[in-house]
TrEMBL record:
Topology in membrane: Single-pass type II membrane protein
Stated name of the protein: Hexosyltransferase
Homology family: Belongs to the glycosyltransferase 8 family.
GO molecular function, one term: glycosyltransferase activity
């Protein structure tokens, strides 16, 4: 072996095994333009909670949006927020409730949102994942096992009691319509949540043969017309959720899953077990989901027939990853205009 080749191999080894020698690469985002209310937007100074720092955080007239926040999906979250604001007729009446894992750098995540949206009303809540981690069973894709995926089950506990209704959104979507329309969904007299239903989907496939062969478990949906719904877009009445102790009901099914394998797909099946057949259906335009392909290969997909108010890249393939890899799907071009990422740079050590 030549001396030059030996030196090259030694240098490469040092670079691979000495992370201090390399400058960390971080994501930096551009500041979004500020959006203003139209003339007919209602006043949101109607809070009945004197503790709230700003009236909007407890206002019933405000649109409350909940999302999770983490380093892996921050690029998608920023794009989603921009799309919500850009298409809202009353963007100053929107308040965001972000949930971050206790192990995450919440101050850094908060600073990222503040720098891109310095005018935004938002709060970051810390989610202690220890309670849910013990209940999580492995699923068909490791990304689905992240405890933060289960935060949507704990919104009623994390958000202040004065927040009575919230729109939950995943981080891999964009809106192209006014979110106030979705937030105003009529939940009727007793529905806890609303979401688009897909009754043509093979509902039985979301649970194992162990579930369906059990004489007791198989009767779970006997008295309701259970249909699949995607939990990435939901309108939730938090007051009814709290009154019905629905977090405990979801946890009971997760505990059952630890004892006997009754499903394979992460945080979705417990929601189906508790709510399928009992939700308020929403027009499919509010969740054109599956644009990320399936949970294994993430292949390109087309839109479902009909109008579109929200595009959702659920599945393995995410638009930012495919764009960066130079292998975008045609519909990823619809996500790109909301991408505020600047060219990555290395911090000086």
């Amino acid at each position: 072996m030549s001396q030059h080749l030996l030196l090259l191999l030694i240098l490469l080894s040092l670079l691979l095994h000495n992370p201090i020698s390399a400058s960390p690469i971080i994501q930096k985002f551009k500041e979004a333009p500020q959006f203003y209310n139209s003339a007919d937007c209602p006043s949101i100074d109607d809070s009945d909670d004197d503790v709230a720092a700003k009236p909007i955080f407890c206002s019933r007239r405000a649109v409350h949006v909940a999302m999770t926040l983490d380093a892996a999906y921050i690029r998608g979250s920023v794009a989603a927020v921009l799309s919500v604001l850009q298409h809202s007729s009353c963007p100053e009446n929107i308040v965001f409730h972000f949930v971050a894992s206790a192990s995450a750098d919440a101050s850094s995540l908060r600073a990222t949102i503040s720098s891109s949206f310095p005018y935004l009303d938002f709060t970051v809540y810390v989610f202690n994942v220890s309670s849910v981690s013990r209940l999580i069973s492995s699923s068909i894709r490791s990304a689905l096992d992240c405890p933060l995926n289960y935060a949507r089950s704990y919104l009623a506990d994390l958000l202040p009691p004065c927040v009575r209704r919230v729109v939950y959104l995943d981080s891999d979507l964009i809106l192209v319509d006014d979110i106030a329309k979705l937030a105003a969904t009529d939940l009727g007299r007793d529905s806890v949540l609303a979401a688009p239903e897909y009754c043509n989907a093979n509902f039985t496939s979301y649970f194992t043969s162990t579930f369906w062969s059990n004489p007791t478990l198989s009767l779970t949906f006997a008295d309701r017309k259970a249909c699949y719904f995607n939990t990435g877009v939901m309108v939730i009445d938090l007051s009814r959720w709290r009154e019905g102790a629905y977090t405990s009901r979801i946890e009971e099914w997760m505990a059952m899953q630890k004892r006997m394998r009754i499903y394979e797909l992460g945080s979705l099946p417990p929601f189906l077990l508790v709510f399928a057949g009992l939700i308020k259906p929403v027009n499919h335009r509010w969740n054109q989901h599956g644009l990320g392909g399936d949970n294994f290969r993430g292949l390109c997909r087309d839109l479902h027939p009909g109008p579109v108010s929200l595009l959702h890249w659920s599945g393995k393939g995410k638009p930012w990853a495919r764009l960066d890899a130079g292998r975008p799907c045609p519909l990823d071009a619809l996500w790109a205009p909301y991408d505020l990422l600047q060219t990555p740079f290395a911090l000086d050590s």
